[in-house]
Amino acid sequence: MQFLNLEAKILEILKYLNIKNFRLAKEYNEMPVDIAFVEGTPTTREEVLKLLTIRKESKILVALGTCAVTGGVPGLVNMMAKKEAMEVYDGFPPDVPIDPKPLEYYVNVDYNIYGCTFSKDELIELITSLIIGKEYRDKEYSVCVECSLRENNCLLDDGHLCLGPITRGGCKALCPNNGKMCLGCRGPYEDANIKGHIKILQDMGFTKDEIIESLSLFSYEKFKEVISWLKEE
Amino acid sequence: MAKRRISIKEITKIEGHANLSVELEDDKIRRVIFGVHEGSRYFEAFMKGKNYMYIHELAGKVCGICTVAHELASIKAVENALEIEVPENVERIREMMLISSHIQSHILHLYFLALPDYVNAESAIEMAERDYDLVKKAFRIKEATNYMTALLGGREVQPCTLVPGGFSKRITKDVIERYIKKMKEIYPLLVETAELFSSLEYPHFERKSDYVSLYDGKSIPLYNGKIKTLHMEFEGEEYEKHFEEYVVNYSSAKRSLVGGRDYMVGALARLNINPYLREEAKDIALSYSIKFPSDRVAWINVAQAIENVHYAIEAMEIADNVKEYEPMHISPKNIDGEGISAIEAPRGLLIHHYKFKNGKCTYANIITPTAMNTENIERNLEEYLKDIAGESDEVIKKEAEKIIRAYDPCISCSVHVIRTK
Amino acid sequence: MGVKIAKNRVNEFLKYLKEEYILYAPVEENGVSKISKIEDTSDIINLPYRTQISLKPIFFPPEQKFFRFEKKNGGVEIEDYLPQEGDDKSIIFGVRGCDVNAIEVLDKYMLDEFEDPYYRKRRENAIIIGISCDYPKESCFCTAFGGMVPERYDLWFTDIGPHFYVDIGSKRGEKLIDDKFFEEASEEDEMRKIRRINSVETKINRKVKTNLHDIKKYYHKIKNRADDSIWEELGRKCVSCGKCNFICPTCHCFDVKDMTNIDGSAGERIRVWDSCHLYDYAKTSAENFREERKARVRYRIYDKFVFPVMRYGVYACTGCGRCSEVCPAGIDIHAVVRRLIK
Amino acid sequence: MNNPYLPAVARITDIIEETPDTKTFVISSPLKFKPGQFVELSIFGYGEAPISISGGNEKSIDLTIRAVGNITKKIHRMNVGDYVGIRGPFGNGWPVERAEGRNLLIAAGGIGLAPLKPVIEYVCNNRKKFRNVTLLYGARKPSLMLFKYKLEEWSKHMDVLLTVDEPEEGWKGNVGVVTTLCDRIKHVSDTVTLMCGPPIMMKYTSISLMELGFPTGEMYLSLERNMKCGIGICGHCAVGGLYVCRDGPVFSLNDALKLIEKPHEVQGVID
Ligand SMILES: Cc1cc2nc3c(=O)[nH]c(=O)nc-3n(C[C@H](O)[C@H](O)[C@H](O)COP(=O)(O)OP(=O)(O)OC[C@H]3O[C@@H](n4cnc5c(N)ncnc54)[C@H](O)[C@@H]3O)c2cc1C
Ligand code: SF4
Ligand code: SF4
Ligand code: SF4
Question: How do residues B300-331 score in pLDDT, each as one tens digit?
Fold first, then answer.
């Protein structure tokens, strides 16, 4: 969907890639493909099977957006008992759905495009890299880096529960630029000092529950361990 | 007995996963099933316990398309619940945001999903090969409207500037002027689009059903107003009294009726309920002998294109009158409460309903336009296919898809079911 | 003997300068104080202390384009952006001592041994009009390095009541002194200036109580603490946000990357500020030489108080306190140094 | 104003396959260089990487490159006639003159032979200037050895000791890490050692040599660090206050030990 937001760029991309399968925009969708972009994460058995097929029939699989990369917001449901969740629908729908997990839980993922919504710039960067054969690498630094390069006021200083320091950069610090704390929609990066940041937040006066709530919003699956550590602390 | 079954496993060029199957016997329609097979995502479940600050952020993720509408509906309900005062200026700016996202959504639907059906193209990609300029024009409008939304919302989808009570960033005169400038730039293209879509040959099928939209007696409201059907008028808060819901076993989305009838929401419903189209927009329609109200289902497409012109003018007028916005710290008066909001998303009426205790959500209910439309879609299909039941499978499939696509259904939203007590 | 200028004439003086020079002065943008190009002298703000953002971005912006390349006619064409860098003369007004000192340090990295042409072009023609602080910020500790007034400047303003006392530090500065605005200062004025500076410095000193003037001694002391447990402790706290690097007026690391169009046929090479706190900073094809966070934290402190002393005989810290101010983990460089020299 | 960030455009005039992952590129760039110096190689659109000069003449330089990452893999896909950018030469180079009139040990591991090749060639051409000369070279497998076609000629001028970690068919030489060959070096005292290879190889080889009594004051190593500018400004290659690009890449072992930031940066050389 955000794909179509690339607008005119799409037309340019089309010169180099052939879009074979795009259910939202196309009627005839073919497999196999060279590059498969998968947005979202499976929540039914059929979808898992479909994902496995896509993996088999594509050379490169790209997880597009937070849901695909970390399980995303839907992953929040993994924090609660299934029964409780089903009650909200008065026990409906009847089939027990599948926990939203990162795609990499089911299949090998070649590239991740982070963010909710994922960053167009990064998608273009990836596509460019694929076209010209350049290595595309995940950013190994935090949102703070991009925020401070823009000379913003730090939202932590203003007492906001910002997840910038542990969230993977690449969004150009979009939310902090707009005066809003980072909610961590891109998930943590490998080198993130999560415990260090939790300490900072606790020193600022946030409670355990508030911190857990904030960590779990977008990346419960990725923070699971830290969260249970924090609960026991 | 000649029985046949036509089925489309996965309807393309709509958002989300839905299937259709038509059972015929002796060229008579026996049964039409429009099924939604998308996993539930439990938003209403995990919103529980979350701080009021995060609710609209989560709501924005309900669906990847109407993020602006969902966030706005959600934040409005939160503000209602906690009695957070919202300056009128803020509401106006939010309306501007909503309008640019509406136009964006309609353009996406019109050019990329609907139009290929009418020009015999497989997809917009094929259209681009044939008529590069046409697709480019569509992209230009999309880009411009996205830009406008991003001016106010930080980014084009999932706006990140909304906070209960206002915005997190300054909205300067400069930003507003740029918004107006962009809208002026694309206005002629919107008129062209309206003309293009008014001139297409649509299925003639008509069926009487009910229509539901916001109503304020003077405009075609998007953000504020009562809910009106052909027969009733009531406040958004009373939605539970008027919508009846029920379940069908072949679909993961619940259905609903209003006053015992199936009903339609969306662009056509808006124009059918509110006879307040601006002259500029009305004239375009009239010059192609198109008049609203109308029961012609495929005219949803026309309604969207015409509506775009109307709202573009509306947005420029609003923008001319809004003031600069300075962010300020707002804290809720209450930390307990219940709030309901009803706004118009591109696909129609959208209702968010929350209860809070200690600033934490204890109950959430989201009713999306597609959920409201599914029953209507199915019944209309049944009627329409009766007329053409003698045709080949291919024709039936194609025509059915045309009707379904006209609604621009957003399947991922439809699994957010209606719950009424 | 210096001169003085009446406070209410400063604005006119700046307007006069603006006719011939590009004027930079303290302003506030989006709630952040910085030194920026001035379009209208009424935008200038009066702060009693340093701005949040230092002078560094003026000479060494966060992002700088080196050149553009395009693959054409079977070859590669390169268009250097250096000539586009204007070499207009500029005046930077309202700078504090720590920042002037910092620029001198930056000069060492960028101009002394090696030369960065982009930096040189911006730096060469900049005239500095500094000003003494009225009172320090919480995090300031410039007196540990010698005080508020730097050794080199073009003009130096100090508040002495209705006037600013103006010290002239260079020929370039002297040329700016125009009778229209300036008058002869009396001996009493000078005394007032000295008293004024002393009183503010005493205030800072009372809080700071650190003196690092004996460079040789302290650099050795700090160098010998390489295995100290303090690094372990700071490594646990630091979240590698890099803010301390970006905000520091003397940090000068950068990354270089190529950005291209979609098919790679044309693009630009740009440099972007980098930070030694980041994981990738010292990574090579063989290994990552500062994989551990504590090594990165230590490296930064050493690159302020040890390595520059070895190379250039100066500290690369001027006590502006910015890094302590921005560190989310509350790592206070002054406190760290105090512990190290204990 | 001359701009040191601006690469000179040059062409690839020849490509020699050395091993499956290493090729030597002959670049039409007439640079005067000292053995051990390096250039910054630009592949436009991909970036820059420091690469040692492994040989050259008045018209061109040779770059022997192992494909490990972005730039190096890209150049492996390039052809004769393609364009690259060159800045340099940079760095101090090997102190070959210190070995004149004395014994010389050249110790290389893997791709580390590339920066030492100009030294070897200098020795071959000026053999009389040196006393005993030994080349110690280790590779992972025989098929990964560089410049095999040169070894015969080189062995006319010096002792060549080769070893591999894993033997392959037809390999009759030594098997084992480089250190297993150290005691076969016939000269110990008054030897200048020039060493380049992976950090781990340099570490253990220098320990072995020290134990055997090679003068540590005359051991020189070439270090590899992350580099962005090559001219001592970007800060990435700094070790213990020195810049590998300007003050190095060649350091004496003594200096290297002093400058290494203890204890974490030591992996590069010695504990
Ligand atoms: C003075 C000097 C001389 C040299 N001489 C030679 C020579 O003669 N021949 C030669 O072949 N090499 C030489 N090198 C090494 C050479 O410079 C590197 O191999 C080269 O820089 C690699 O560049 P690259 O763009 O190909 O690899 P990069 O893309 O930079 O990657 C290099 C390696 O690091 C990893 N990596 C880097 N960044 C990241 C990241 N962000 N995330 C994950 N992984 C990452 C990659 O996976 C890869 O393994 C020399 C180095 C120096 C300092
Ligand atoms: S700032 Fe944080 S929440 Fe916002 S886009 Fe970036 S990663 Fe996502
Ligand atoms: S190290 Fe910190 S205190 Fe020192 S100059 Fe840099 S920012 Fe200022
Ligand atoms: S500002 Fe503080 S937390 Fe951030 S990198 Fe520097 S020392 Fe670490």
Answer: 999 999 999 999 999 999 999 999 888 887 77
The ipTM value here is: 0.85
User: CA-to-CA distance for A76 and B41, rounded, in angstroms?
Assistant: 10
Q: Which CATH number fits domain D96-222: 3.20.20.70, 3.40.50.620, 1.10.260.40, 3.40.50.80?
A: 3.40.50.80
AA identity, residue C168: I
Helix (H) / strand (E) containing B67 = helix B67-82
CB-nearest partner of D231 from C114, C226, C292: C114
B155 Cα–ligand 2 center, Å: 11
* Minimal-distance CA residue to ligand 1 atom 36: C285
Q: Is the pLDDT of residue C291 over 90?
A: no
Architecture of domain D8-90: Beta Barrel (2.40)
Contact at CB, C114 and D234, closer than 8 angstroms: no
Chain D CB contacts of C289 under 8 Å are 225-226, 239, 264-265, 267-268
Atom 6 (ligand 1): residue with closest C-alpha? D51
Q: Are the C-beta atoms of B333 and B83 separated by less than 8 Å? A: yes
Q: Tokens 């507003």 belong to which residue? A: B176
- The total number of residues shown for chain D amounts to 271
**Residue C157: closest CA among C324, C318, C322, C9:** C9
Q: Cα distance from B61 to chain A (closest Cα, Å)?
A: 7
User: Are D70 and A132 in contact (CB < 8 Å)?
Assistant: no
Average pLDDT over residues A178-198: 90
Lowest mean pLDDT among B171-180, C109-118, C172-181, C208-217: C208-217
Residues of A in contact with D69 (CB under 8 A): 135
Burial of residue C8, with CB atoms counted within 10 A of its CB: 0-12 exposed, 13-18 middle, 19 or more buried:
exposed
The per-residue pLDDT for B412 is 57
- What are the distances in angstroms from CA A29 to CA A22, B20, B404? 6, 18, 19
The confidence score (pLDDT) of residue B302 equals 92
Q: In this complex, is the C-beta atom of D76 within 8 Å of any C-beta atom belonging to chain A?
A: no
Which of A120, A182, A197 has most ligand 2 atoms within 8 Å of its beta carbon, as the pocket-test mutant? A182
**DSSP letter, residue C207:** H
Give me the residue spans of the domains in chain B.
Answer: 43-414
**Ranges of residues in chain D whose predicted pLDDT is under 50:** 262-271
Mean pLDDT of C31-37: 88
Distance A63 CA to ligand 3 centre (A): 41
Q: How far is CA A90 from CA A1, A81, B239, B371, B420, in A?
A: 31, 15, 19, 16, 11
Using an 8 Å CB-CB cutoff, list chain D residues near C286.
198-199, 224
Kindly list the structural domains of chain A, giving each domain's residue range(s) and its CATH number in brackets, ordered by start: 4-132 (3.40.50.700), 143-232 (no CATH)
Ligand 3 atom at minimum distance from C98 CA: 5
What pLDDT score was predicted for residue B343? 92
Q: Which of D41, D42, D46, D51 to mutate to test the pocket of ligand 1 (most atoms within 8 A of CB)?
A: D51
Nearest to C267 among D44, D48, D238 (CB): D44
Question: Smallest CA–CA separation between A132 and chain D, in Å?
Answer: 9
C-beta separation of D107 from D205 below 8 A = yes
| pLDDT for A94 | 46
pLDDT reported for residue B419: 39
d(CA C272, CA D226): 16
DSSP H helices in chain A = 8-13, 45-56, 66-70, 82-87, 120-132, 143-149, 174-177, 194-204, 208-232
Q: CATH number of the domain at B43-414, please?
A: 1.10.645.10
pLDDT band at B417 (very low <50, low <70, confident <90, very high): very low
**pLDDT value of position D205:** 86
Q: What are phi and psi of C88, to 5 degrees?
A: -65, 150
Q: Is the pTM of this model over 0.90?
A: no
Q: What is the pLDDT of residue D151?
A: 86
Could you identify the residue written with the tokens 């994922």?
A118
